[in-house]
Amino acid sequence: MKSVLAQKKPIDVPSAEIAKLEAAATAIRSVAIAAIYHAGSGHPGGALSASDILACLYGAEMNVWPGETANPARDRFVLSKGHGAPALYAAGAHFKFCSVADALTLRKLGSLFQGHPHVLDLPWVETSTGSLGQGFSVALGMALGLRLKGNPARVYTLLGDGELQEGQVWEAAMCAAHHHLDNLVAIVDYNKLQSDDKNANIMGLEPLGDKFRAFGWRVIEIDGHAISEILGAFNDARGTRARPAMIIAHTVKGKGVPFMENVPHWHGSVKLTRAQAEDSLTALGLDQTEIGGLINGSR
Amino acid sequence: MALAEAAPQLIGSSGDSLREAFGIALAGLAETYPDVVVLDADIAGGTGAHHFRKAYPTRFLQFGIAEQNMMAAAAGLAAVGLIPVVTTFAVFCLRAIEQARLSVAYAKRNVKIVASHPGLDVGPDGGSAQALEDLAAFRAVPGMTVISPADPLEMALAVKAMLDFDGPIYMRTGRSPAKRVFSDGHTFEIGKGQILRFGSDVTLVACGVEVARALQAADMLAREKIAARVVNMPTIKPIDAALLAACAEETGAIVTAEDHNIYGGLGGAVAEALARTYPAPIEFVGLNDRFGESGEPEELADHCGIGASAIADAARCVIKRKARA
């Protein structure tokens, strides 16, 4: 991947910080898998591919504070790929926006942790998503509004790669560049798979970086599982003026759970057996006590 | 009755369209409502938003011909505390209804969707441009308030009420010169209808451009000694169920009139309300499940069966049904 090497700017991050964020990503993956297991449905593949990005956003990049979810100064995050909700909830649990036990109520009747994020239930998810393409535009509107109000807060949004097939995404891509929204950072979780098959077989996206560059974006391509590269990309985005930044994060669908990695079946809303859930958590490096806590902590 | 004396007469065409009245009112209120921003998809000259653009260029946000992005971005603007007013044609609001559903209504954002060019009132642009489904579609979105004012004066009042209201609203304006229906003392409250003309034989319930036609129909019926009550129902959702029940009880027969398909709009809302309160025979004036076509609004109204004579015909028909009941 020549473009990655060409653009990757090394960033000096202490190894303890990297280790902390890697541990956060593992915690996010674990709680997401457990929540999907308890729910009996949910999309594991895209939750696992996005976990490192979420860990870096909530654990390092964004100015967000549990208990201050209405603070106007907070940065905003919009999960435009709303089906990644289990990972978002798991990130929220790890970074104290909610409890792990609450996040494990995913998709249950009466739960605040809906199948897709809903802002009326959980203010910290910032907006309701679940219909692809919309969150990107909502984030754009937030960025435009913050700029109008003279608020220096930044807006981050995570899109799926299949999501880029929605026409609305390109409407928003044109619009954000036209309005020079340098307070907007979009990240594509580019795991190359979507619901039924590879992107390339459903509706090819390449050359993806060139498309966004042609639309007027600063494009930064990275390995979406390398913490230092993710942090470096956010750093580059923050230094970008007069145009929005698109971080194309090359990822692996199902990352961290070998039997799910790169298998389209695990994109969809699936029912995990107890054995599959336990195998997944084992693969993620959890010990028997931790696994028991997440699996038997069922409600 | 006292109100009967206050019943307005048709003042005739003012030359003002509802879209112009909307744009002028919005620009006039903008200083008092500093959080209002106006979103446009390259048709500000057609929606009335050009008045706001001229007066407040920094609060006028251009989205290009891309309504889906505009609608969802409005939700984002509302999320940071602004009051976005989305302006486009009614048909293009339909194009973005899924964005209005999820990003606006599901998230309960304070977004105002203002749709010009609804119904046959669009005129010569023809069937492709004449939205006849918007009231039904937006009415079906949970939590969405739906408004269709009748004349320029009521439009100005509705714009203020809309900005004072916290929650998503879909409001129709109109393309063509609108008949003046109301005089200066008129009031507007979201969720309230008004009796414009008293009568005890039948109630004509109308919204938008059909209010003036309902008043004309009442004049026609009066010449036959039929006393038609005319109700202006500018809020389609939430419908004024109490007023409808009283009118059904007092007149025993209802005609609804709207520049819209007969399914799911004002007629549907009235029927749903009365079925639960005071069931009475109802006739529905609207497009009979067909699209429009090119022509001038008045001739189209007659051609497609939503003119004053069609309302009068429906009244005669429903009165006969009342006699059989």
Secondary-structure blueprint:
The complex is a heterodimer of chains A (299) and B (325).
Chain A: H1 2-7, H2 15-39, H3 44-61, E1 76-79, H4 85-94, H5 100-103, H6 134-148, E2 155-160, H7 167-178, E3 184-190, H8 199-202, H9 208-214, E4 218-223, H10 227-238, E5 245-250, H11 274-283, H12 288-296
Parallel strand pairs in A: 1-2, 2-3, 3-5, 4-5
Helix pairs in contact in A: 2-3, 2-4, 2-11, 3-4, 3-10, 6-7
Chain B: H1 2-5, E1 12-17, H2 18-29, E2 36-40, H3 44-47, H4 50-55, E3 60-62, H5 67-79, E4 83-89, H6 90-95, H7 97-106, E5 112-116, H8 134-139, E6 145-147, H9 152-164, E7 169-172, E8 177-180, E9 194-197, E10 202-206, H10 210-222, E11 228-232, E12 235-237, H11 241-251, E13 254-261, H12 266-276, E14 282-287, H13 297-303, H14 308-324
Parallel strand pairs in B: 2-3, 2-4, 4-5, 5-7, 6-7, 10-11, 10-13, 13-14
Antiparallel strand pairs in B: 1-8, 6-12, 9-11
Helix pairs in contact in B: 2-9, 5-7, 10-14
Q: Which overall shape of chain A is indicated by the principal axes computed on the Cα atoms?
A: globular
Oligomer: heterodimer
What's the Cα radius of gyration of chain A? 18 Å
Which stretches of chain A of 5+ consecutive residues score pLDDT under 50? 1-7
Q: Could you tell me the number of beta strands of chain A?
A: 5
Task: Walk across the major sheet of chain B and give the strand order.
Answer: 3-2-4-5-7-6-12
Overall shape of chain B: globular
The major β-sheet of chain B equals:
7 strands, mixed
Strand content of chain A: 5-15%
The Cα radius of gyration of chain B reads 19 Å
Order of helices and strands of chain B: HEHEHHEHEHHEHEHEEEEHEEHEHEHH
Which percent range fits the helix content of chain B? 40-55%
Series of secondary-structure elements of chain A, N-terminal to C-terminal? HHHEHHHEHEHHEHEHH
Instruction: Compute the separation of the termini of chain A in Å.
Output: 45 Å
